[in-house]
Amino acid sequence: MSELQQTLVLIKPDAVKRNLIGEVIRRCEAKGYEVVELKKLAASRALLEEHYAEHHGKVFFEPLVEFMLSGDVVAIRLEGHGVIEGFRSLAGSTNPTSAAPGTIRGDLGREWGTKVVQNLVHGSDSAESSSRELALWF
Length: 138
Ligand code: DAT
Ligand code: MG
Prior knowledge:
CATH architecture: 2-Layer Sandwich
Bound molecules: 2'-deoxyadenosine-5'-diphosphate, magnesium ion
Order of helices and strands: EHHEHHEHHEH
Number of domains: 1
């Protein structure tokens, strides 16, 4: 059985611009997870480079940081048993073209021909990532 956990959810600039903040939160709450803390902000380059440190050196790293700088993001501390895996499941796979229908990325996302995939949300991928990322954003 899964332990009580917290994860970092980011609603990315594409979702904020499309007025999908409520839709993403609705799906989290409908699943039963609790929004413990939430803020809307313009992230700094330093924060984003630290957040995405694992992708440093990849071809999409700079486009990814630029995309995340292109508008406000919403950061959420989301809590529940198994929430780290559970939110990743709600979000769907990275590429929105192949993300399963029923997921946030599968239902609401698509490819736009950009250098970085724009896929509406971020969710921490492990307990180590969630601790590290929550400390960065909150
Ligand atoms: P995820 O967000 O599903 O955890 P990730 O951590 O591997 O995916 O990558 C971070 C973001 O970078 C991802 O949400 C979209 C973008 N991205 C990942 N792989 C990519 C690729 N091969 N080409 C373009 N953008 C990519
Ligand atoms: Mg990731």
